[in-house]
Predict the 3D structure of the following.
Amino acid sequence: MSRFWTDKIASLDPYVPGEQPQDKKYIKLNTNESPYSPSPKALQAMAAEVNESLRLYPDPNCVSLKKSLAQQYQLETNQVFVGNGSDEVLALAFMGYFAAGKPLAFADITYSFYKVYAGLYGIEPKLIPLNDTFDIVARDYQDLDVSGVVVTNPNAPTGKALPLADIEVILQANPDVVVLVDEAYVDFGAQSAVGLVNQYPNLLVVQTMSKSRALAGIRVGYAFGHADLIEGLERLKNSFNSYPIDRIALAGATAAVEDTAYLQEICEKTIATREFTVKALNRLGYELLPSATNFVFATHPSKSAEQIYLSLKEQGILVRYFGNKPRIGEYLRITIGTDKEMQALISALQTL
């Protein structure tokens, strides 16, 4: 600890990403990256942008990407916000809409960055427990005195999806605060709430290019909401970093959004491989939660999650182990890779 740290720095409990060991080549099934290449059109667009124009600043308003997203989701461009990964979008939303002195409601088992943002901005978390089968229960989000609500759909790390009707129950129960729906994994089998944006002025839907569009490396995320909500995010962005998206990322993200056929292709491949993996793990005695994501959440009734994780790592396969976290310490989150990678996983587990 440096003597130059402020009390704020010293009090932080930072987010810990999935491990990225460099000692050898691994089959990486621990960070929910796509096993497939980005859209060829996106790669071509990014390559074309590597020229003398890189001496110039990028478009601070990301107009081309906003137009493509608005057209794709049948919204106006002033209903779209773009940021440097969905994590930045979430951080700005927490700062702008939830740091108002009241607690912020989100599930007790969900994306762990929410607690980090809450600590950063001095927000008290109000943790709403998942039920015994790891479901978000919509009625538990009624009669709350909070600054806002965050719902991850599908949830992570459980992978379970919430019906759109339940999202509406939460929205209707909290009309005076922002309800943020984090849809990082929505393209793998859940219903998106984007279609509800024009009905609910308190709805903010956040998505990312990192998962279904296989562009985790360029860090682009975006949000959809009422124009007034989006204007608030724009004011925050332009008070912090007015150029969050570089020229190369902007070109690639725009092309990827427009290449809907490729998005559908790799999502269908991922879903098919997920179903194969579920059946194979079931045959080995693993118990899994229903998944609408590009990962599965698995436990074995008679084998230690830590020992499985360590054994797989020795065999060159990384999965996500959550240590002694309450309720999920005996679960492993396993990213869906290619058919070949998942067969390697199954073969390694058979040796146990």
